[in-house]
Design goal:
single chain, eight-stranded antiparallel beta barrel, 8% helix, Porin, mainly beta
């Protein structure tokens, strides 16, 4: 029982130190995170020819991306920044072989800090920007035929996470988020030849959750 009380007192003391009055994200502070982003997404594909639906399918996908953010605190409770992500888009195409897909996102983020202390900052906020997706497949009909599809979309996301600075200005970042895209196909190449998409509208709607983990750094501020 005494050991349990000592453990609780020690834990409570560390929490007091963690949530001290000093703030890591003061007004005028710059902060950066660099890490890894993994996500799972629901996907709906729709193909229309002259406004008539000719194909529709639902599936799932996963993403693995490198993640870099840079933020500036306009106020102690709010920052604005740039969010960049790039990596691979994983799918299981029907009647085809995946041949290396690429996905990227560039966005502005707005973060609010309900908790903003010396060594710990919890944030929540949206991201708005643009996404690009390149899907490469190989279809086999006696011979192998490569195909490439390129999409672009606006991007919306919502994320909450924390920065824990365990060595002065350096620490770790962890976050959970939601994102959605409405990709529109603007380029299609089959067996090395670009195809005409004039009468087609091909869309790929994705929505899912993702997790970030990485390193964080901050400096400056009043």
């Amino acid at each position: 029982m005494r050991s349990m009380k000592k453990l609780l007192i020690l834990l409570f003391s560390n929490l007091i130190l963690l949530f001290s009055n000093a703030q890591s994200h003061n007004q005028g502070a710059f902060s950066f995170t660099l890490g890894y982003d993994a996500g799972i997404h629901g996907v709906t594909y729709t193909s229309e020819y002259n406004s008539t639906i000719v194909d529709q399918d639902t599936s799932g996908s996963a993403t693995r991306m490198a993640h870099l953010t840079a933020s500036y605190n306009i106020f102690k409770f709010m920052s604005i920044g740039l969010d960049l992500r790039s990596g691979s888009y994983l799918e299981d195409p029907e009647n085809a072989t995946a041949n290396g897909n690429k996905v990227s996102m560039s966005a502005l983020n707005l973060r609010f800090y309900p908790v903003n202390k010396d060594k710990f900052a919890w944030y929540i906020g949206p991201t708005f920007g643009f996404s690009r997706l390149e899907i490469n497949r190989i279809y086999t009909f006696i011979v192998s035929i490569p195909a490439q599809y390129r999409f672009k979309s606006g991007h919306f996301g919502l994320e909450t996470g924390f920065n824990w600075y365990f060595v002065k200005n350096f620490g770790m970042n962890f976050a959970l988020g939601y994102s959605s895209q409405n990709f529109n196909m603007y380029y299609y190449r089959l067996n090395g030849e670009e195809q005409d998409l004039s009468n087609y509208e091909n869309t790929l709607k994705t929505a899912g959750v993702h997790m970030n983990i990485g390193l964080s750094y901050h400096f400056g501020g009043r």
